[in-house]
Design goal:
The protein is of the alpha/beta class. It is built from 15 helices and 16 strands. This is Carboxypeptidase.
Length: 508
């Protein structure tokens, strides 16, 4: 064995660069094998109902990302992450068509939902509330795929899907809002370079916390890399957590969540027959009017509210959201969402879904104060899990020796350290992008029955963005669907949303 010695004046940066040439350095300084991309590319054909067809390639696998060492000195990048993604590129529609980068949220969720529920050329046959598809689950051609109008890259955040840290790196460094933002932005930059797509319009599509991520990533692309997104699509958005986080988890005196959730409660009550003879829009309009006028004044009074007025308010709220007035009054007129989902169908012995309030299931404890589990994710999860594992292996040819993490508990605790003593929000990022890039447009999709990210909270934040009023009216498109958080599990909503996204990417 030959001994080798480093000069005594070798810097840490030089050592890191030397290590990068062979591989990553472990915690003890040993050299690990340099990680490599693991990508599988397959060719496909999608027949469309109009008689035309779409030929495309699908590239599935892990992309090794590298970073320069910290400090003033420059050196070659070292591997720090192996991010899993599936890239769909049409082979017969030009090389400068738009590219859509899509991700779900959680934090801790893979992008299986957008991938196989809405955007990809194949979709899961999951069924819907009250009409679930039983096993064996299947995959169908998605004739509304965004691939008709743009190339598509679905990305799994760190520790979700097959995404993992590079050998010797730590995953938890990416488990936080800012580090996660930087990781996804770095992946986008890397993908554009590898695929020679810098002249293609870039669109970001996020769902749930993925909208938090999309807004933050858009800001990072503009601020750090001077990349201007053509469009940002926000499905079931949360842009300011103070609008949806209740008092038990947030400083007392913040009544905003109670106001913003009320229209969603009314929509859920309607879905379960609590408003016979009335349309959904009629019920929602009444609830929104109350939430924006009388309700804030009632809550602002606190103990100063006259008992008779409080009783009248409890009866009015109860009638809107389909529960008993005594229960509303005991809650001090402040109805928390997990409690509501346990209460609204209590007399029928059922709990209601948070992700989608149209779903319900038998309650395990009829006296439980809050919903114990979410029927919507419980009932939809198995079909998506089966479909993604079968699809990646059998149709895209990618296998791995680790589990595809649909929901990963490994990302917790998720760090919001940058927002200490203030609300977590990315509305300022979104507004800054709109101010800096006059061509960027925003599409927003709301589900009426979404009790995770209520539509009225998003409406409020968007209406108060620090941008010119004309920009709000002309550059932000907002659509509503008679479904929940994942509105695409409702077939009419899926078809409508697919068309709306196509219009958005086409610039219509």
């Amino acid at each position: 064995m030959t001994e080798s010695h480093s000069p005594s004046n070798t810097t840490a940066t030089e050592a890191a660069a030397a290590g990068a040439a062979a591989g990553a350095l472990g915690e003890g300084g040993e050299t690990r094998p340099k990680p490599e991309d693991r990508l599988e590319t397959t060719a496909h054909l999608l027949e469309l109902p109009d008689g035309s067809s779409l030929t495309y390639t699908a590239t599935a696998g892990t992309h090794v990302l590298t970073e320069e060492p910290e400090g003033e000195a420059y050196a070659r990048g070292t591997a720090y992450a192996e991010l899993f993604a599936v890239s769909y590129v049409a082979t017969d529609r030009g090389s400068q068509r738009p590219v859509v980068f899509a991700f779900n949220g959680g934090p801790g969720s893979s992008t299986v939902w957008l991938h196989l529920g809405l955007l990809g050329p194949r979709r899961v046959d999951s069924g819907d509330a009250g009409a679930l598809t039983p096993p064996p689950f299947g995959l169908l051609d998605n004739h509304e795929t965004i691939l008709k109008d743009a190339d598509l890259v679905v990305v799994d955040a760190m520790s979700t899907g097959y995404s993992r840290p590079a050998p010797g790196a730590k995953p938890d460094r990416h488990h936080g809002i800012t580090a996660d933002r930087d990781l996804v932005a770095d992946f986008i930059m890397d993908w554009l370079t590898r695929n020679e797509r810098w002249l293609s319009p870039v669109h970001l599509v996020g769902e749930s916390y993925g909208t938090t991520r999309a807004s933050a990533v858009a800001g990072r692309l503009v601020d750090r890399f001077n990349v201007a997104p053509a469009g940002i699509a926000l499905l079931s958005p949360v842009l300011d957590f103070s609008t949806i986080v209740f008092a038990e988890d947030f400083p007392a005196g913040n009544d905003a969540p109670y106001l913003h959730y009320l229209p969603t409660y009314a929509a859920i009550a309607h879905a379960h027959g609590k408003h016979p003879g009335r349309s959904l829009l009629e019920v929602v309009d009444e609830a929104e009017a109350f939430a924006e006028t009388e309700y804030p004044q009632l809550l602002a009074q606190g103990h100063r509210l006259d008992p008779e007025e409080k009783r009248e308010a409890a009866e009015q709220i109860a009638a809107l959201i389909g529960v008993g007035p005594d229960w509303v009054e005991r809650a001090d007129l402040r109805v928390e969402h997990m409690a509501y989902l346990a209460e609204v169908l209590r007399e029928e012995g059922r709990i209601v879904g948070r992700i989608d309030g149209r779903f319900s299931a038998p309650a395990g404890n009829l006296n439980a104060a809050t919903m114990e589990t979410d029927p919507s994710t419980d009932e939809l999860g198995p079909s998506y899990t089966a479909a993604i594992n079968q699809y990646l292996t059998a149709e895209l040819g990618f296998t791995s020796d680790v589990v595809y993490e649909i929901f990963s508990p490994r990302v917790h605790p998720w760090s919001y350290k940058e927002f200490e003593n203030r609300s977590v929000e990315v509305a300022s990022d979104l507004a800054r992008v709109l101010r800096k890039v006059p061509s960027t447009r925003v599409f927003v999709a709301h589900g009426y029955h979404d009790a995770a990210t209520p539509f009225h909270a998003s409406e409020h934040v968007l209406a108060h963005l620090p941008i010119p009023t004309d920009d709000y009216r002309e550059r932000i498109r907002i659509e509503y669907y008679e479904a929940g958080h994942m509105m695409y599990v409702h077939e009419p909503s899926r078809v409508a949303l697919g068309e709306h996204l196509g219009q958005f990417v086409r610039g219509e």
